[in-house]
Amino acid sequence: PRNLTFPRFKDRHSQEARTTARIAHQYFAQLSALQRQRTYDFYYMDYLMFNYSKPFADLY
């Protein structure tokens, strides 16, 4: 459409740290084994699509 505009900034948070496997591991470490598994199950398709590695070995 003619009135469609895009933001002028390229990346609003370009200076912030990106999520890494180490950061994901730190967050998962704060959860119980059951909470870790449920979280992994919820995001399972993301792990497949983006080829993420499991943050903990006890996840199936």
Give the topology, please.
Blueprint: H1 21-29, H2 33-42, H3 44-49
Strand content: under 5%
Low-confidence spans = none
Largest sheet: none
Percent of residues in helices: 40-55%
Could you tell me how far the N terminus lies from the C terminus, measured between alpha carbons in angstroms?
47 Å
Give the rounded overall mean pLDDT: 85
C-alpha Rg, in Å? 17 Å
| DSSP helical segment count | 3
Order of helices and strands: HHH
Shape: elongated
DSSP strand count: 0
Structural class: mainly alpha
Subcellular location: Golgi apparatus membrane
Organism: Macaca mulatta (Rhesus macaque)
Keywords: Carbohydrate metabolism, Glycoprotein, Golgi apparatus, Membrane, Signal-anchor, Transferase, Transmembrane, Transmembrane helix
EC number: 2.8.2.-
Task: Explain what you see.
One of its GO terms (molecular function) is sulfotransferase activity. It is found in: Golgi apparatus membrane. Its main location: Golgi. Belongs to the sulfotransferase 2 family. The chain is an all-alpha fold and 60 residues long. It has a domain at 21-50. Helix content is 42%, strand content 0%. It has helices at residues 21-29, 33-42, 44-49. The protein starts with 20 loop residues before the first helix and ends in an 11-residue tail after the last helix.
Task: Briefly characterize the structure.
By secondary structure, this protein is an all-alpha fold.
